UniProtKB/TrEMBL annotation:
Gene3D superfamilies: Jelly Rolls. It comes from the Bacteria. Residues 1-20 are annotated as: Disordered. This is Cupin domain-containing protein. It comes from Kibdelosporangium lantanae. Residues 33-97 form the Cupin type-2 domain.
Length: 121
């Protein structure tokens, strides 16, 4: 057993608190908490690993491969690997927990770069 203190990173769109990652001792799964203020949105991107997003407070809008859904507290959304997506904080602040397998990279549609997710390492 290992107790972990979160590691925090911020982007212009959100704050990520790493909860379980390889650098924090996890070998198979990564989890982090995302906090977004009302009206903010992440970039349009894809992740090469399946992700599960679970809002803890508030709600967010997910657009994935042309389909848009609102995800409420108490629900979850499963985003398949490679699916282009964008996450938006809905009408208030949102906090969500995200889980995925270790080793994921992001990419921007039309680009060839594999971008590491620092909060998942």
């Amino acid at each position: 057993m290992q107790i972990v203190n979160p590691r925090t990173m911020e982007t212009p769109n959100a704050r990520m608190d790493s909860l379980a990652t390889p650098s924090l001792g996890s070998t198979e799964l990564c989890t982090w908490r995302v906090t977004m203020t009302a009206g903010t949105e992440g970039p349009v991107h894809a992740i090469d690993r399946e992700q599960v997003w679970m809002p803890v407070t508030g709600r967010f809008t997910v657009t994935a491969d042309g389909r848009t859904e609102v995800v409420e507290t108490g629900q979850s959304v499963i985003l398949p690997a490679g699916e282009t997506r964008q996450i938006r904080a809905h009408d208030g602040a949102v906090e969500a927990v995200v889980c995925m397998a270790v080793g994921g990279f992001a990419s921007i549609p039309g680009g060839d770069d594999r971008i590491p997710l620092p909060w998942a390492q």
